[in-house]
């Protein structure tokens, strides 16, 4: 290995099921690692994306969980002479082996809010997570909040936990025109599923409009589950899946970005909104307070009144929150995350 870059097999299979959340962070980490001279990234697990809701998509999800994560990823990494295998989800080999394995844990919603996960996701994770954590040579937690959760769940893994926060790509702070809109709006970004708490956000927006506020609600996200159906309201616009360029414009034009999630392991949309220059109102649960610091208005996600008042405050304090948010985003870089990952990889070989 001396004299050549470390060969890191980075599992990107999550990109076959969507482009948000874990898929987005894995791709951005891959790009940041590519910018380094001491790491060669082997992108494994990539492939076609079946249509949402199709039988092929469900079959793919099962194959990735039952065969790829447990055996296939390591076999592919070994076949390509990788020095380290990095899986960006706590889905991985169930026993130790070669090459050494790093798994990233974004949150332990399966422990704190199992009711917000699909039945398959909940059952599979509850049965495999202890073995995946025990088998991993290193565990990355994306926040101190998640690290504490992992340590409490698997005390024997404590000395293998490394906190490496997600970064935010410079793309989000690049100059861009805001999305054209005939009315001011609050933006929500996330897959429509129970943990995102979107129905309470809709109720909070309804309450605000009953009190005379003019902002509409724009939701970005697709491929939902858990019977989360946003109601039909003339002031609610479903943007669905959008490109990053479109999303950046939506961030830039929003009166505020609302993140009322019941639990988040980090808060990528908060960092993106900070970088884009938009005030944020976020839930005071999970890792969101850690990610946001004093750059966002924190609210009780179970209290519709709190959410509504938080949106009002974020809009009223727009200038101060934008300044604080941009400073927060400047401190959260993918280059810093890649540096810490590269150091961790090197320690394992």
The average pLDDT score comes to 92
The CATH homologous superfamily of the largest domain is named Glycogen Phosphorylase B
Radius of gyration: 20 Å
Order of helices and strands: EHEHEEHHEHEEHEEHEHEHEHHH
Query: What distance lies between the first and last C-alpha atoms, to the nearest angstrom?
Result: 9 Å
Structure description:
Helices cover 42% and strands 15% of the residues. It is α/β, with parallel strands linked by helices and 349 residues long. The protein folds into 2 domains: 6-167 and 333-347, Glycogen Phosphorylase B (Rossmann fold), CATH 3.40.50; 170-331, Glycogen Phosphorylase B (Rossmann fold), CATH 3.40.50. The strands form 2 sheets. The protein has a 6-stranded parallel sheet, with helices on both faces. A 6-stranded parallel sheet has the order 9-8-7-10-11-12, with helices on both faces. α1 links the parallel β1 and β2. α6 crosses α10 (304-316) and α8 (268-276) packs across α11 (318-331). The chain is globular and about 65 Å long. The protein starts with 5 loop residues before the first strand and ends with a helix. The relative contact order is 0.13. The model has no long low-confidence stretch (mean pLDDT 92).
